[in-house]
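Customer ticket, subject: "Can you confirm the structure for EGF-like domain-containing protein?"

Message body: Hello, I'm evaluating your service for our small team and ran a test protein. I'd like someone to confirm that this is what the system normally returns, since I don't have a reference to compare against.
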Amino acid sequence: MMYLGFMSLQLRCAHTSYRLAWRTNTYFRCAPGWMDTNSNQNCVIPICNPPCQNGGTCVAPNKCRCPVGYDGPDTSCTTLRCSHLLPCYPGTCISPNSCHCDDGFTGSGQDACLTMTRNNGMPFVTLSRVTLANVRRTDNTTKFSYSMDGTSGYKDTVWSNQKDFNYLSFEFNSAYMSPQLPYRPNYINDARLGIVDGHITANITKIPRSGTNRDMAFQKQYKCPGIADTNPNNGMVDCILTDNQFSLIIEHGDWLNVVFIAKSGGFRNVVNFDHPNSIWNTQIYQGLTDQKEVEFKFDFDVPIHCSEPNIAITCRVNDVPLHIENELTKLPVNISWAGWKDDLSKMDRYHIEVFKLSPDPYGNLQEMTPLKPVHFDDINHTHDGIYQYAYTPSEEGMFSVLLQAVDKANNSKIARRFLLYVPSSNISLNTRYMWQTTKAGKTTEISVVWKNHFINKFISEGKLLNKVNAYPIQFQDIQREGILQTSKFVFPGLDDNEGQRTVDEKQNKNGIVRFEAVISLSDGTNEPQKGWFDINGLAENVKFNETLRDGITARVWVRAHDVLGNTISDNIEVHFDSSEPLVKNNSTVFTRNHPNGTYIFTSSLNNA
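Agent reply: Thanks for trying us out. I re-ran your input and got the following:
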């Protein structure tokens, strides 16, 4: 735009012969807001005041055409608005430059809505399993394996007594369901959310040889393939990773720590709308993580009892590895124990097993089914005092009771005690038995024999007081394969060598463990209340030295006891008559040792 102007001037000068005349001049000027180009009277350049900022273009007087992303008062391009320079996604742009992020997202400026919150950004580790194994390389046979799931909380700890692992495997599942993303503005050409990272860290630490900090012996990270910030998985990630070269020697006191980590996230591709065919920037969503931790702690030492030799623990009163209060009984049984300790993993539980004993071909008692107890139970270790356990066998017989003291790493030590339970058995008399008596001399000595006259048939026929064999060792072959503490046996020094019933045979005669005798010279038939004495060595005979006279009756009493406290007594009368018989009738013939009699050594009287 231009303007033309005119001006005239006439001067009259006195005192001069000159005379000024009017002359007209023409000049050029652009209209306000415009500017000439190169003084060629072409006013096509607009003027913006203040000048356009941030790359804006002045397209008319005081009017800027701003680049994508800018705005401002008087269209000066000084204010950044929602765009590729100030993304607001997922969210709502409140004109011109305020961003309200959708629920579950936060952030400001160029990082607006890039941070995910717990409202919808939390992934979940749904499976975290560690498997330690020993796999034979020649044929890939698994000798043994041990698996642990981390599902009960942030961190799960398990104690183990296994070692010689050469194979480490992980199963890792994680899930994340992303929210439905809203319609994209023109400056976002792609956006995706999901799980962007799944990895496992494993390390082994050892008891320090010096100091207090544990020594790091192994550290490695295992990463799930196929997922990344720019390649999120919206749904479930299943990941199985193995390390078949794992060969670190596991020692007593080692810790294996495994952490499973899943992370959510994603990306948004931001484009400059002025150049929509090229990505201006790829921005990464900052998601959240979930993790589960599994820790293996290794303990190869068995529990100890304070009564064992070379143990630096002082036993208290009643600190016994295993005790049966009434081991020979007709009544319910009370079992007790105390004094068990474990230094590293600590005590975990006590496992009780009851086996019925039967005689082997040699007559010794034995657990014939050493893996099939007639009764078993577990009692958790809750204190260091005395544990009491009541038990009543379901049938009569001789039983072995095994107490397995177990620590948290499954190391164990077994003690054994015996129990005879016969609630209904009694002593009986051999009804076909004939008492035997002899008299030495004429008046002073009486000998009585009662061999096999008293018997407890149940105890005798079952050989329940015979020697008890050692508990047969179980799983010994498996332990030779390298699995620690697999074999099951009664620990030396903890077998039953105390009380009334031990591993040794209990001396008895037909189930009888004690005989008493007494002689009564009165005619009474009541059992005497005093005067009884024990028969040494379970002899089934007794001798009395008494002053006797013709016509007197001596009654010998014998009383038998079995191990259960049952008693029975029997007696025999002995009449003394040293006079010879007289035959007054001369027609009667007396015959000694009559040969045709029913009984030998008898006499007869017959008429002549």
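A couple of notes from the result: The chain is about 0% helix and 45% strand. Confidence is low (pLDDT under 50) at residues 1-18. Feel free to reply with more questions.
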